[in-house]
Write a structure and sequence with these properties.
Dyp_perox_C, oxidoreductase, nine-stranded antiparallel β-sheet, ferrochelatase activity, heme
């Protein structure tokens, strides 16, 4: 839960930047093409050549077009995989698979080929295939993204140990860890995000079915964020503690953004060029304990005002934090153990991560304690220089530590995007 901006503040299309739901056309009146395309352009939505008329988005002549949320489309093919720098979506699924006994490199290649073809169709708003379930028939792409990664164990199971990146070495143990091994790691990892819940589920179900006899689900987690258009203007998202979560993400406009987030073209191993490493942590928030704190106590733990995310040293959300500012008694205005102070890149040798989380709520324990928190997802060119040093410092004295618990963890190598005609991971599996 490092103090970094979400993609909303990273120069990317804002999550809250679409018109509010319900603010659509008058009954019986469609949205004009000019208005529809204007909305898409203003929010950074990318439409394919056929736009909203492709696949599931097809509509008979004279029918009301899809809302702006349905028309949002991300591209499957590109330099990087989708789902890394795209805006946060309202619904998400994280799922890890283990290869089945006897399945190896050949089966893995066939699976990634199937998955990539299906992901390309689904992200375009088209059916998954001839046996499509029709779950998302009435919806457009809804900004669906599907991202694939490889875990440490994948390379041993496919005989590709020599191609396993050093950066994929297992994460060290941290004092805040209470990890469930059954819900951690895995051979293959898939991230699904969409602004429509049925579109997201449809993708999850299609990929799970297509795993067939090659792989089985190891664990699966469901998350959510605020729906686009729910706020009057674009805002950094809030977490389940009510805090604005993520005010210092690296921005694509930063000179060192690519270096911090993505493996360079000439990096090692070669198959990871333009890829990234993702750390996934299921962080349970101890909400009953947190909500007993006063507002002032909560703000002291974080180091930022709850209302607007501004640092306690003053200004607005984006104002640089003044770590030396003191009050009338000589105490630091931003406490020395405040979460926002500890996680600042300039307090961690420049370590930075691109965070793209989802909140989660998985019901209640027998005593009524909510099983809720954050599906922490962070991207970096090297986790040993990104996630690890920050988490080690948090271990040594973060005021937030007593209100959270890390319950699951995973580290995955996410290769660069697939070129047209390629599948994700082809350079590894066929290199």
């Amino acid at each position: 839960m490092a103090d970094q901006t979400t993609p909303l503040d990273a120069g990317l299309p804002a999550q809250g930047g679409l018109p509010a739901q319900g603010a659509g056309p008058e009954p019986g009146k469609g949205i004009s093409r000019r208005r529809l395309l204007g909305t898409a352009g203003a929010t950074g939505v990318v439409l394919g050549a056929a736009g909203a008329a492709a696949g599931y988005a097809a509509a008979p002549a004279g029918a009301t077009p899809l809302t702006s949320i349905g028309t949002g489309r991300a591209m499957f093919h590109g330099k990087h995989q989708p789902g890394i720098t795209d805006p946060l979506q309202a619904h998400g699924h994280l799922v890890a698979f283990d290869l089945a006994a006897g399945a190896g490199r050949k089966e893995a290649a066939a699976l990634l080929r199937r998955w990539s073809a299906t992901a390309e169709r689904l992200m375009a708003g088209e059916p998954a295939g001839p046996d499509d379930t029709d779950v998302a028939r009435d919806a457009g792409p809804s900004s669906l993204t599907i991202t694939f990664g490889f875990g440490h164990s994948f390379f041993g199971r496919t005989g590709l140990e020599k191609q396993r990146p050093v950066a994929l070495d297992p994460l060290p143990a941290f004092s805040s860890d209470h990890l469930d091994k059954a819900r951690s790691n895995g051979d293959l990892w898939v991230q699904i995000g969409a602004n429509d819940a049925l579109v997201a589920f449809h993708a999850l179900r299609a990929l799970q079915k297509q795993a067939g006899s090659a792989a089985r689900v190891r664990w699966q987690m469901n998350g959510f964020n605020r729906t686009p258009g729910a706020t009057a203007h674009p805002m950094t998202t809030r977490n389940l503690m009510g805090q604005i979560d993520g005010t210092r993400n690296p921005k694509p406009t930063d000179a060192d953004f690519e270096r911090r987030v993505f493996v360079p073209e000439n990096g090692e191993p070669a198959w990871m060029a333009n890829g990234s490493y993702v750390v996934v942590r299921r962080i349970r928030m101890l909400l009953d304990d947190w909500e007993r704190l006063s507002l002032a106590q909560q703000e002291a733990v974080i180091g930022r005002r709850k209302a607007d995310g501004a640092p306690l040293s003053g200004g607005t959300e984006t104002t640089p934090m003044d770590l030396e500012k003191t009050d009338g008694d000589g105490n630091y205005v931003v406490p020395v153990n405040a979460h926002a102070r500890i996680t600042r890149p300039d307090q961690n040798g420049g370590a930075a991560m691109l965070r793209r989380p989802f909140s989660y709520h998985d019901g209640f324990d027998a005593d009524g304690t909510p099983d809720a928190g954050l599906l922490f997802i962070c991207w970096q060119a090297d986790p040993l220089r990104g996630f690890v040093p920050v988490q080690r410092k948090l271990d040594r004295g973060d005021a937030l530590s007593k209100y959270i618990r890390h319950e699951a963890s995973g580290l995955f190598a996410v290769p660069g995007g697939a070129a047209k005609g390629e599948y994700v991971g082809q350079r590894l599996l066929e290199g």
